[in-house]
From TrEMBL:
<dbReference type="InterPro" id="IPR050346">
    <property type="entry name" value="FMO-like"/>
</dbReference>
<protein>
    <recommendedName>
        <fullName>Flavin-containing monooxygenase</fullName>
        <ecNumber>1.-.-.-</ecNumber>
    </recommendedName>
</protein>
<dbReference type="GO" id="GO:0004499">
    <property type="term" value="F:N,N-dimethylaniline monooxygenase activity"/>
</dbReference>
<comment type="similarity">
    <text>Belongs to the FMO family.</text>
</comment>
<dbReference type="GO" id="GO:0050661">
    <property type="term" value="F:NADP binding"/>
</dbReference>
<keyword id="KW-0503">Monooxygenase</keyword>
<dbReference type="Pfam" id="PF00743">
    <property type="entry name" value="FMO-like"/>
</dbReference>
<keyword id="KW-0560">Oxidoreductase</keyword>
<keyword id="KW-0285">Flavoprotein</keyword>
<dbReference type="InterPro" id="IPR020946">
    <property type="entry name" value="Flavin_mOase-like"/>
</dbReference>
<keyword id="KW-0274">FAD</keyword>
<dbReference type="InterPro" id="IPR036188">
    <property type="entry name" value="FAD/NAD-bd_sf"/>
</dbReference>
<dbReference type="GO" id="GO:0050660">
    <property type="term" value="F:flavin adenine dinucleotide binding"/>
</dbReference>
Length: 167
């Protein structure tokens, strides 16, 4: 399955160190920073098959922390090793390069929690992770009706309890 959009950055020009090959934006450290120009340029929202708003918020906070000097990026060599590790995992799975930014299969929460840790925030709430897993299971079982038929009262109760701390 392809992402719902194709990456294209014509404003960067042909001499950019950032390329798009098989819909993979390359090389991006943690799917955000082009290594050669980090931290001067960043991309928020490149990953797909995600729960977008928590991801985008955490990416934005991470970039803000880096730009303010509160958070330090690793060396360019270390960032490139991280990118190569992602490509190696794809190759091991037999996945094409265009799946580089595909976060299906639960990777999003690992990534979100890493971003949260970098920013000094708590990890994504467990009830959110459970609700996402329940939704995926419901969608697979009832693709035509998954939005209308739910068995998640317990998860909604957990969410309501969590929300009380904000009021």
């Amino acid at each position: 399955m392809l992402s719902s959009y194709l990456y294209d950055f014509p404003f960067l020009g042909d001499d950019s160190t950032i390329t798009v090959d098989d819909n993979c934006v390359d090389p991006l450290y943690k799917h955000v920073f082009p290594i050669e120009v980090a931290p001067d340029l960043s991309f928020i929202g490149v990953p797909w098959k995600v729960i977008p708003f928590p991801l985008f918020e955490l990416q934005s906070k991470w970039v803000a922390g880096i730009l303010s000097g509160r958070i330090k990026l690793p060396s360019k060599d270390e960032m490139m090793e991280d990118v190569k590790a992602i490509y190696s995992r794809l190759e091991t799975r037999g996945w094409p390069k265009r799946y580089t930014h595909n976060f299906s299969g639960g990777y999003q929460f690992e990534y979100d929690d890493w971003l949260a840790e970098q920013c000094g925030h708590p990890p994504i709430e467990e009830w959110r992770k459970l609700m996402y897993a329940a939704n995926a299971k419901n969608k697979a079982a009832r693709p035509e009706r998954y939005r209308d038929e739910w068995d998640d009262d317990g998860l909604v109760a957990l969410a309501n309890e969590d929300f009380k701390k904000y009021f």
